[in-house]
Amino acid sequence: MAPAVQLAQWRLARPAPPRPRRARRYSAAVAAAARSEVLSIREALRQRSRTAAETAAEWLDRLRAAEPAVRSFLFVEEAERVLNQAEEADRAARRGAAPAPLAGVLVAVKDNICTADMPSTGGSRILEGYRPAYDATAVRKLRRSGAIVVGKTNLDEFGMGSSTEGSGFHATANPWDLARVPGGSSGGSAAAVAARQCVVALGSDTGGSVRQPASFCGVVGVKPTYGRVSRFGLMAYASSLDAIGCFGSSVLDSAAVLGVISGHDRLDSTSSTRDVPDYVSGLISVDAMSSKPLKGTRIGMIRETLGEGVDSEIISSIRAAATHLEELGAIISEVSLPSFDLGLPAYYILASSESSSNLSRYDGVRYGKQVPEDELASLYGSSRANGFGSEVKMRILMGTYALSAGYYDAYYKRAQQVRTIVQKSFKDALAENDILISPAAPTAAYLIGEKVNDPLAMYAGDIMTVNVNLAGLPALVVPCGFVGGNSPLPVGLQMIGAAFDEGRLFKVGHIFEQTLKGLSFVPPTVLQQASAPVS
Ligand code: GLN
Predict the structure, then answer these.
(1) Which of 154, 162, 458 to mutate to test the pocket of ligand 1 (most atoms within 8 A of CB)?
(2) Beta-ladder partners of 300
């Protein structure tokens, strides 16, 4: 079904008005890049053309078929429990009830986000077997909106990493090329959406962990403004930077999920009391508008993100995306963020410092697997030595060092000063531009094992994303092209907005993806599976 029709039905819950006939030059590309799974599931339920149980069974089949190769999940819910929840949605539909916004939508949840009825390990051995007594607020809101949690996805331990190789359990593969990483730390969620193992997924983004894997896996990822989504039930990594975000295979699907999980929560005093706009109804189909749908939108290309240290093919893709936005009517200019390169060291000092404090709760007594010892101090020591992986230990050491008396002023305090400068430079750039664009990562997905023994190279890959967390701003990543010729790998375009301006990012992203002529971001592994004979 055309997105124009789907959108109208989301808004009005009744048949769409006839579509205008003019400006149809983009319509052929619309189906490929901007198909909304969420709206088609909802529409099928509404029209009773396909039951939620049938839809769930189809997604579950794909989840199971892909899982041995991709390994996106740390826990998969029993099929029977998923189908029971889908049947509940079907019973409501038979009673004539209007489907809930995410009725019958299978969602995967990053395993550092608590779920009451499923394990929640944060990707760490120290929490193996832990089942929280409650749902994170974002999960509670998803379930209340009809979504069905299908499982918990893999991640770098406690979100510390950029490839998912730092999971305490196993690595995850990139569905575009199984020898490559899916990115991280929310690599399991990104891979699961890319492999069509679930409709949408939750991730967390402290320094890029939603956006970089979205780029590596060719899916849409959104990191909202700090405080837009409650962090209650998210295992804290760096509390002043952490944000729950989401993945979808279209902008519309990501917008639908963000709309549901956003809003104030009395259980998180940093969550914002601002109203949550209806992100989905703000999206416009290009069929219904002029051929210059972005007329007047001021877009700044961040100069520092398109130079040294960035793969030339990535730079070309982002420049091509800028030209495309210009053809759609946007006014493109180059903008300089002089403090851009300072963001990375400041981020690693602040994130490690906060993590050294946050992770002190895993001591084998309050939280975490206990290694019994006669002395309490050795019990703490052995439990932590045994439960944490090496990257986490390194971050705790770095953070403790940066916070210690005598070094605090030289590291932590200076990093906070840099943070203020970064915030100001974004403010200035966003006073002159509606949105800023950059790559989401300096490279496409790299080989598993390539950077695992070189932490500094791994950290350097976060250069495009960490500044946005320091400034607390929202950013959306939309697939924009491919690199790599014969075996193509996706590239994502990062769009950064002013605080609480997610709605504008979705609007621009939605227009952009609808007009990506002929590009399809379905990985070959999924296409092969779809064409394989049913056994
Ligand atoms: N790769 C970054 C880090 O290791 C960001 C991680 C994240 O956003 N959770 O800290």
Answers:
(1) 162
(2) 333, 436
What domain range includes position 246? 3-7+26-342+415-531
Task: Check which CATH number belongs to the domain holding 420 and give it.
Answer: 3.90.1300.10
E-strand stretches of 115-164: 148-153
* CA–CA separation, 423 and 469 (whole Å): 10
- Is 355 among the domain residues? no
357 domain residue, yes or no? no
Q: Residue 269 domain-assigned?
A: yes
433-477 per-position pLDDT tens digit: 999 999 999 999 999 999 999 999 999 999 999 999 999 999 999
Q: How many domains does the chain have?
A: 1
pTM of model > 0.85: yes
Q: Is the CB of 208 under 6 A from ligand 1?
A: yes
- Confirm whether 110 is a catalytic residue: yes
Residue 367 lies in a domain: no
Question: Do residues 347 and 469 lie in contact, with contact meaning Cβ atoms separated by under 8 Å?
Answer: yes
Q: Is 162 in the pocket of ligand 1 (CB under 6 A)?
A: yes
From the CA of 354, how far away is ligand 1's center (Å)? 13
Q: Is 357 a catalytic residue?
A: no
pLDDT at position 525, please?
79
HSE-CB at 475 with a 13 A cutoff on CA atoms is 35
- How far does residue 113's CA lie from ligand 1's centre (Å)? 15
